[in-house]
Each structure stands twice: as structure tokens, then as C-alpha cells.
Design brief:
There is one protein chain. With 132 residues, the chain is of the alpha+beta class. The protein has three helices and six strands; from the N terminus they run H-H-E-E-E-H-E-E-E. The protein has a single domain, classed as STM4215-like, CATH 3.30.2000.30. The protein has a six-stranded mixed sheet. The two termini are 13 Å apart.
Length: 132
């Protein structure tokens, strides 16, 4: 299991996010002809502090991109995700234990070719593998 699997589960099952995007959460790329709005995620950095016998505390820097046919749809999805993730701590569905999650920065874009708005947010996740 991976951190990314747990993040996907968290984002695709949160009631407030499902209400806005169903379960349209994808790693890195949106599949062709996928309805909007939706979310993509990818790891953009990280580190770990191993200790004797375990992998220790780990950190992932993750960029989430919220895509929509309007700025309002993309921004509403970003704001709802920030409300879910910023300050989150506790177990993820796959056994990873999040010690802390916090928003680094929001960024806005417009993709002229696809005619889509993209509102992004970067987060740091500090976590440990439960039982490790």
C-alpha cells in the first residue's frame, strides 16, 4: 500500500467532496472526456526521517489540481478540499497515520486549449505507516 492510495481514498470518499465531483479523483492526469469538475493529485516532494527498526516520520508535498468548466466550480472544489485536509490528522483508510496536514499555497490557472479553469493547492502531509 502507498500513501497515494490512502490519499485517493480520503479524497474520493469524503461526503463534501463527493457532492461536488462524485469520485472523480485521478493521479496526475485527467482521463480524456472526463466530466468536470474533478481533482488530480501528484507528489512534488518529500522526505523521511528513518529511525531504528521503522521508516519513521515521513513527509509528502502534494499538489492537488481542481479542474472545472468555470472558475467557480474549480474554486469551490478547492475550498471544500482545503476544509477537509487543512489541519487533518488521524488514520487514512489504508493504515497510514497522518500526524499533520497543512496548506502551503493556492494557485490559479486557465488552460486555454482545454478551456478549463484549474485551481491548485499544495499541502504538506506528515505521516507514519501505522504498525511500522
Amino acid at each position: 500500500m502507498s500513501f497515494e492510495t490512502g490519499l485517493y481514498s480520503l479524497l474520493s470518499t469524503s461526503a463534501s467532496l463527493v457532492a461536488l465531483q462524485a469520485a472523480r479523483v485521478f493521479p496526475v492526469v485527467v482521463p480524456e472526456d472526463e466530466p468536470m469538475p474533478c481533482t488530480t493529485y501528484h507528489v512534488v516532494g518529500g522526505s523521511q526521517t528513518p529511525i531504528f527498526g521503522t521508516s519513521g516520520m515521513q513527509r509528502r508535498r502534494v499538489q492537488l489540481d481542481f479542474r472545472g468548466n468555470s472558475y467557480l466550480a474549480a474554486n469551490n472544489l478547492r475550498n471544500a478540499t482545503i476544509a477537509v485536509l487543512n489541519g487533518f490528522n488521524g488514520p487514512m483508510p489504508n493504515g497510514f497515520l497522518i500526524a499533520d496536514c497543512w496548506l502551503i499555497q493556492p494557485i490559479d490557472y486557465f488552460d486555454n486549449d482545454a478551456r478549463q479553469f484549474r485551481c491548485s493547492a499544495e499541502f504538506y502531509f506528515d505521516f507514519a505507516i501505522q504498525g511500522a
